[in-house]
Amino acid sequence: MRNRWIRFGCFLTGFNYGVISACSELSTKRVIKYTSALLIVCLLWSFIGFGFTNRYLKGEWYTNVTASLIMVFLVIQIERQIILSSKDNRLLHLSRLVIALAMALIGTVIIDQILFKDDIAKKQLMTMDIEVNNILPGRASELRKQIEDINKTIGEKENEKKMINDDVAKHPFVTAYESQTQKDTSKNVITTIIRKQVLNPKVNQLEPLERSIIAMRKDKMKKDSLLLGLRPAIESDLKQNVGFLNELHIMYSLLSESGVSLAAWLIWFVFLLGLELFILVSKAGETETDYDRRMKQQMELHFKRIELLNKQA
Q1: Fewest beta carbons less than 10 Å away: which of 15, 104, 146, 190?
Q2: Helix axis angle, 90-115 to 117-170, nearest 10°
Q3: Are 195 and 177 in contact (CB under 8 A)?
Q4: Average of pLDDT values for 165-184?
């Protein structure tokens, strides 16, 4: 079981298992130490990646798991740069310090927004009225304008309908003239004008006009309903469309107003920063082991082989 753990640790950290298995217990303990520290960081960032994707990207479970694995992969590759580097590479260590500060800050922001989501929701409700009051007048004004236009059109249609009804009531029938042509025995064309009473043709305009008025009234009722429910609709949209930056702004307000929230945020930041720097600090304080000497010996042997090949060439 211990050999399997060491083999797994070598896979994570990038150490050569064949060389480690032939080295002293000190080198083996170093692999175990780095493996444990790396697993802690990976576990933390897998949770951060999963939570961020689930909360803000609205991903399915497989998308969340994929994001979590990607974060673990990135963390392993970053930490390997430190684990496999030499102690004298100060520029690399400095860059890792900058990355650790950035990662600790990002991790703290995401974790706090997940852990304090209920507090953020309460704060959001307090500030929602201000946002609604900013959005409501514009949308309400547009709806009222549309309702006024519909009322105006309905009034015009009603007047037109009344005029037609009055005309039909006064003149239910109108005189129509119809001409008929025929030829007599001498083949002369004779035109006969026939006068008859027919139903007023304006009656046919009433039915489509009534349908148009009914459709506009239905449209007006819908817009009236929208106007009455406009405020709840805006509040619902604001609740559903809560983004990362919006919650970040609310979180900033909470931290600036509450010393307890700021203290909790700082505790998480220091904790994450300590985890991020754990491997870097361990690397800075370690001593040379037989594994390092074996690596140097292999390098020197390769250099000698290259020199010999150059001389033979």
Answers
A1: 190
A2: 60
A3: yes
A4: 71
The pLDDT of residue 197 is above 70: no
If you average pLDDT over residues 115-141, what whole number do you get?
75
Using CA atoms, how far residue 143 sits from 76, 232, 237, in Å, is 56, 15, 17
DSSP strands (E only) in the chain:
173-183, 189-199
User: What is the spatial distance between Cα 106 and Cα 119, in angstroms, rounded to a whole number?
Assistant: 19
Instruction: Identify which has the larger pLDDT, 156 or 182.
Output: 156
Q: Is the pLDDT of residue 247 over 70?
A: yes
CA angle 241, 245, 248 (to 5 degrees): 115
Contacts 24+ apart (CB under 8 A), 26-30: 26/289, 26/290, 27/289, 27/290, 27/291, 30/286, 30/289, 30/291
What whole-number distance in Å separates Cα of residue 31 and Cα of residue 47? 24
Q: Which residue has the tokens 């074996």?
A: 294
CA separation (Å) from 176 to 26, 182, 205, 261? Answer: 118, 20, 18, 90
Query: Which token pair is 12?
Result: 């994570």
241 touches 135 (CB < 8 A): no
The per-residue pLDDT of the chain, averaged, comes to 80
pLDDT at 86: 67
Which residues, other chains included, contact 107 with Cβ-Cβ below 8 Å and sequence gap of 6+? 44, 45, 48, 268, 272
pLDDT at 146: 87
The structure's pTM equals: 0.60
Helices 203-228 and 117-170: angle between axes, nearest 10 degrees: 160
Judged by DSSP in three states, 180 sits in strand
Closest CA to 161 of 117, 115, 216, 110: 216
Q: What are the backbone dihedrals phi and psi of residue 197, each rounded to the nearest 5 degrees, phi first?
A: -95, 125
For 179, phi and psi rounded to 5 degrees? -100, 140
Q: Are 278 and 37 in contact (CB under 8 A)?
A: yes
The per-residue pLDDT for 59 is: 75
